[in-house]
Amino acid sequence: MRDSLLIGFHVISCVQFAFSVYYDYTYVIVPPTLSRMHNSYGGKFKFLTFWDAIIQAVYFFICLLNDLFGTNAANVKKPPFIRKLKDYIHAVLSFPLSMFVGITFWSLMLIDRELVFPKFLDAYFPWWLNHLMHTMIMVSTITETLIAPRTYPKRSKGLLGLVMFLLIYLVWVHIIYIKSGVWVYPVMEVLTLPLRILFFATLLAFSTTLYIIGESMDNLVWGTTVTAGKSAKKKKLQ
Q1: Is the pTM of this model over 0.85?
Q2: Angle in degrees, CA 194, 49, 103, rounded to 5
Q3: Tens digit of each residue's pLDDT (9 = 90 or more) over 58-70
Q4: Is 24 left (phi over 0), alpha (psi -120 to 50) or beta?
Q5: Residues with Cβ < 8 Å from 144, sequence gap 6 or more?
Q6: Nearest residue to 57 (alpha-carbon basis) of 91, 17, 97, 21
C-alpha cells in the first residue's frame, strides 16, 4: 500500500512539473514591447524558477525509477545507484532550491511585486502556473521529505554541490547581463554594486541554511528509524 502511494505521488509530482516547464516554455510569451528582459539572451533558461522546475521534474522521475527498480527502505546496507542518486539530488538540489525559490519569491512579492513579478505578467503567466512553480515546489519537496526516507551525504560534500550550482547560476546571470545589458531580476537594477554583492552573499548564506534545515528535518523524521536499523545491524554482526 505504501509503495503504491509513493508511486502515485511521484508520478503526479513528475507530471505537474514537467507540464509546468512545457507550458511555460511553449505558451508563456511576453511581448518585447512590455518586457525586454523576458525576450533577452538566455530565454526561459535565464530564470532560476525555470531551472528549478526542470530539476524537480527530473528528480521525481528518478524517485519513480527508484520506486520501480530501487528501494525505499529506511536502512539499506548496499543501496543501488538509483537510490544514491535520488538521495543526493534531494539533499543538494531538490530541497534547498525549491525552498529558496518559493520563500524568496513570495517574500519579494509581499515587499514589492514589481521587483520580482511585475503586475503586467498576470496577463501572460497564469495564476495556476505561478503556484505550480512557486508554491507546489515547496509542498512537494516537504511531502517527499515526510513520506520517503533517504541518506544525506556528508555535509561538506552536500554543501559543496549546492554552492557550486549556485555559483554557476550566478556566473550565468552575469553572462546574460553582459550579453543583453539586462538583469534577470528587476531587484538587481535598483541595487548599487556593494548592495548587490551583499544581496548575493545573503542569498548564498540563506541557501546553505536551507540545506542544513533540510538535513535537520530529515533527521527529525527519519533519524530514529535509521539509528535503530544501524543498531540492529551491529547486533547481528556481534
Answers
A1: yes
A2: 70
A3: 999 999 999 999 9
A4: alpha
A5: 9, 13, 60, 63, 90, 94
A6: 17
As a whole number of angstroms, the distance between CA 91 and CA 145 comes to 10
Amino acid at 105: F
Kindly tell me the burial class for residue 35, based on how many C-beta atoms sit within 10 Å of its own C-beta (0-12, 13-18, 19 or more).
middle
**Which whole number is the average pLDDT over 24-43?**
88
Helix axis angle for 127-134 and 2-27, nearest 10°, is 130
Q: Helix/strand/coil (H, E, C) string of the chain?
A: CHHHHHHHHHHHHHHHHHHHHHHHHHHCCCCCCCCCHHHCCCHHHHCHHHHHHHHHHHHHHHHHHHHHHCCCCCCCCCCCHHHHHHHHHHHHHHHHHHHHHHHHHHHHHHHHHHHCCCHHHHHCCCHHHHHHHHCHHHHHHHHHHHHCCCCCCCHHHHHHHHHHHHHHHHHHHHHHHHHHCCCCCHHHHHCCHHHHHHHHHHHHHHHHHHHHHHHHHHHHHHHHHHHHHHHHHHHHHC
Res 135: pLDDT: 96
| Tens-digit pLDDT profile for residues 120-150 | 999 999 999 999 999 999 999 999 999 999 9
169/164 Cα distance (integer angstroms): 9
Q: How far is Cα of residue 4 from the mean position of the Cα atoms in its chain?
A: 25
Angle at 62 between CA 61 and CA 67, to 5 degrees: 95
CA 39 to chain centre: 24
